[in-house]
Amino acid sequence: QVQLVESGGGVVQPGRSLRLSCAASGFTFSSYAMHWVRQAPGKGLEWVAAISYDGSHKFYSDSVKGRFTISRDNSKTTLYLQMNSLTAADTAVFYCATDPTWIGGLTYFDYWGQGTLVTVSS
Amino acid sequence: SVLTQPPSASGTPGQRVTISCSGGSSNIGSSAVNWYQQFPGTAPKLLIYTDNQRPSGVPDRFSGSKSGSSASLAISGLQSEDEADYYCAAWDASLNAKVFGGGTRLTVL
Questions:
Q1: Of A47, A113, A115, Cβ closest to residue B98
Q2: Residue B64 near residue B18 (C-beta atoms within 8 A)
């Protein structure tokens, strides 16, 4: 069965960096686009970034563009999110999610990980 | 949020409830709508994709529809276990980004 396990969350000071990982199993990782979606405490869902199945195309929300970098290693079936210049507004649970489509008008998230909490605080 | 949902909805067991999602020509008007269900403390779950398609395992009590730049999620035969948060989402071609509605908390009275 599909499994997505996020890791790398924790408490980090403002201005510092953190790298999240999402270990995938149970499906052909290299055939799926992947996304990061976050949810601030008590708030709604916010899409963060997406990467195509082969890593050739990447998309970012305006709120993280220039600070976050999405990447993947298909040989390790792992998705990453490098987060730099973190602020309190980045405090959230970060989910990785699979997308069986080409990123765009048909995109949807069919499987989600359990999430990892990132807390940005001094 | 780019997509607009009512913050709350409610119904009694057995009732039919609809949740609306309003957007614009760059998102709902030109892209497929998805719906997600989320229980407190858990990850979201895909409920509807491509406007009105149900993944396997999702009861047919849940249905999606779209007209122009608006979409709706309908839940018929409401059950207590349907009490959750519901989010709509679509790709926005102008932003080149996935956008979500603010979410609707459904209460089963």
A1: A47
A2: no
Distance CA A64, CA A20 (A): 14
Q: Which chain B residues contact residue A47 at CB under 8 A?
A: 89, 97-100
Q: What is the DSSP string of A54-107?
A: TSS-EEE-TTTTTTEEEEEETTTTEEEEEE-S--GGG-EEEEEEEE-S-SSTT-
Contact B99 A112 (CB under 8 A): no
Nearest residue, CB atoms, A44 vs list B31, B50, B103: B103
pLDDT of residue A3: 98
pLDDT digits (tens, 9 = 90+) for A75-100: 999 999 999 999 999 999 999 999 99
Exposed/middle/buried for A121, CB within 10 Å: 0-12, 13-18, 19+? exposed
Q: What is the pLDDT of residues A19-29, one digit of tens each?
A: 999 999 999 99
pLDDT for the residue numbered B97: 96
Q: Which residue of B has its CA nearest to A49?
A: B97
CB B1 within 8 A of CB B98: no
- Given a cut of 50, the residues of chain B with pLDDT beneath it are none
